[in-house]
DNA sequence: ACATGTGAACGCCTTCACAGCA
DNA sequence: TGCTGTGAAGGCGTTCACATGT
């Protein structure tokens, strides 16, 4: 009855962020007909410490076999279950520039339950263009597109100046999870989960270390 | 004579990663003719704690004025100096798909000392195409392009299967700093600094939390 | 014998709270 | 007075080291 019971049900974000990586490695094993993998081997492949691997997996339950290792099929199922692979995640992308088109065609955005269902722009010169199997739609069609979708995810791939308006449009449409590629911190109420990806940040970090030498 | 003296010269990576954000905010102040900013205001804009802001800035020196705040021009100069803005960083992008083209045209890759000097591909159907001011070159031209450049940064925007070969090509050409967008962990010797950006990772994290509810 | 699962230690980062200074 | 700069505390994530279990 104490809160102790729930200790293992709250997975730290750092651990969540490693799960997709573990899954990639485990699936690679499946393809190579490898049945069992040790925390040591997995750690080597994921470039982390083996204790980190073992502790991470305790959040998925007690999956290993002492003296042997982890069954890769069991691991794949356990990880995928936590990442919600039994679900589907419709993705709507705002901004049909090169980045929006790259994401639309990206394997990562069309696997593991994700699939891009709409690509939107405000530029009449781009609307109607084909990108993969999709046609670029007018931004005003986004709201209509969202209705009826479960768990829609919005992606902001617009120029920075348009990001604020876009996020408001998405929220009005009922999107509660947003991935933002614009270099702007979006202010939303806390029911909306926003994650920011800064494409040039890592470049600036590299430059910092080059500057150090 | 003790190592204590060097304490403040080693800037933690977490702090480095916040510097570009602070700089954006500070430059915004400059544009709006705001002369002074407090740690509280900056913290609000950067969505961090004000103590974090103040501690971060101690790594740049003692820049503030007690009772008043930070001079935005002083801040801009101090941050830019640490990020090496007096230097220039030629960027070479491997892979002229949508992502490579997006990065080539991206403001973040053509500001603050960064400029894309080459875009390379192996697909003859793409080689020769114009992207912004650049023409896509054959991958074999990359090595030639690097010679004579100081502090070149390589960007891998190829399909995953080509990433391994591309990184080897870059290292042979003398590139020591690499930004990798392929969902593959690259193994290099430790003289090469590799940073990985996983475009779909944040999507998977969003999905995890959607799955929780 | 061997690899997992985990208590305990460690180190890093964040935050509080206040001394120090304009 | 008001805000910076920072010692100290707190919290989180990683790693060690070994007890546990097959």
Question: Care to describe what's here?
Answer:
2 copies of one chain form a homodimer. Helices cover 40% and strands 17% of the residues of chain A. By secondary structure, chain A is of the alpha/beta class. Chain A has 2 domains: 3-82, Winged helix-like DNA-binding domain superfamily/Winged helix DNA-binding domain (Arc Repressor Mutant, subunit A, Orthogonal Bundle), CATH 1.10.10.10; 89-201, Rossmann fold. In chain A, strand 8 (153-156), helix 7 (160-173) and strand 9 form a beta-alpha-beta unit. The N and C termini of chain A lie far apart (57 Å). The interface between A and B is large, with 55 and 55 residues. Chain A binds a DNA duplex (22 and 22 nucleotides) through residues 12, 14-15, 38-40, 48-52, 54-55, 57-58, 62-70.
């Amino acid at each position: 009855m104490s809160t102790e019971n729930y200790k293992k049900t709250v997975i730290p974000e750092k651990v969540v962020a490693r799960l997709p990586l573990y899954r990639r490695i485990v699936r690679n094993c499946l393809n190579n007909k490898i049945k069992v993998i040790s925390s040591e081997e997995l750690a080597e492949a994921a470039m982390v410490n083996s204790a980190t691997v073992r502790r991470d997996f305790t959040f998925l339950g007690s999956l290993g076999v002492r003296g042997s290792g982890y069954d890769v099929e069991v691991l794949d199922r356990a990880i995928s279950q936590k990442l919600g692979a039994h679900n589907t995640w419709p993705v709507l992308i705002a901004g049909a520039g090169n980045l929006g088109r790259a994401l639309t065609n990206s394997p990562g955005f069309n696997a593991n339950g994700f699939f891009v269902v709409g690509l939107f722009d405000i530029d009449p010169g781009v609307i109607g263009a084909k990108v993969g199997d999709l046609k670029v739609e007018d931004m005003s069609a986004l709201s209509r597109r969202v209705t009826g979708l479960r768990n829609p995810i919005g992606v902001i791939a617009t120029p920075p100046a348009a990001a604020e308006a876009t996020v408001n449009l998405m929220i009005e449409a009922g999107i509660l999870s947003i991935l933002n590629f614009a270099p702007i911190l979006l202010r939303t109420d806390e029911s909306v989960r926003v994650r920011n990806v800064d494409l040039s940040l890592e470049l600036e970090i590299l430059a910092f270390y080059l500057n150090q030498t």
